């Protein structure tokens, strides 16, 4: 049974976003029949009008089903059927997950014409909209991208090659062809591009086995796919009631981890690890029922992080969001760090959803620690008590307005009333799920990790 596709606002701790009108078969009425010299399009459609057609790169107004209009950059165009033009747009005020194909009828061509006329020397005062890329690829993302494409030995590339990687990344992340994915009993909307092989990546729909994450082009292939797997590979390291965690070595279960990453990338903007999974451990969270251990999300972690990162990439799959699983994964990463005797944190930069999840986790942990003490406390002490890095402690206390910068030092200052006010202001709530360390069967690796984990085997 196919359920409703996941909506863009379905993030674990996601901000509320309005939903655009689905790109439906509503184009015919918007395609006038007269020819025009101003009709320019990369795919010269049979459509034309006295109104100009938007050029790639132009900024136009796009209407949504609530009758609101939003500025968007035209990224690409296509002709789905003769005379039916569609445009792939990126909304300037929104994250890339909102990018979509829209029918021409949803673009305000009158407004676009005014823009163009505004460019003429004798035209009305210019109303031309300009587009500035709102998203920069950070050095860290470049490193990851490069590692994915070239292997980790190639990470020390020149500035020119980094620029090339940046351009390629921008180009590749512009258009997502896969709009929906059939996964278990769900039909999920794809939020972002994932680098599935070309013959799959260009399909509008993809079929993914929920047990092994093998991807298929046709429903029939999924129906006839015989999968004996009913839980993730690796070692079960945590079990409480219906919640179970598996630890998987990316070097030992390369295909599973690659397929897991490719699937997760459909819902992740920033992280670009797909192929070079060997240097990572994967911690896969499942919900266990009579039919098996269903993967609800995971996080990956570098086996050796020089920056003490305790998490590289985190994803809760859309059907399982807003149930506390994201927070559980974050807490789990800190529990492992504590057992390793380390203070760590997630790799930066965080994705938008990642930041929201972490902020609420950090805030709740710090407020809980502050409630427990009557003594003045420093950021270093809070860091030691919570396992959160000092930088993250300071940033979170600033977010909560509980810290002042005074004479070169950060000073935590608050009253009980202010603690309560911060909780209310940031809408913080007790966790729905918490890690019960009594149910954890895990020791930090002391020997070379591979050998130790190989001995663990698959005891699931
Ligand atoms: Zn399978």
TrEMBL record:
Family, as annotated: Belongs to the MYST (SAS/MOZ) family.
Pfam families attached to this UniProt entry: MOZ_SAS (PF01853), Tudor-knot (PF11717), zf-MYST (PF17772)
Regions of compositional bias (Low complexity) in chain numbering: 22-48
An annotated GO BP: regulation of DNA-templated transcription
Active-site residues annotated for this sequence: 347 (proton donor/acceptor)
EC numbers: 2.3.1.48
GO molecular function, one term: histone H4K16 acetyltransferase activity
Entry GO terms, CC: NSL complex; NuA4 histone acetyltransferase complex; nucleus
Name this protein carries in UniProt: Histone acetyltransferase
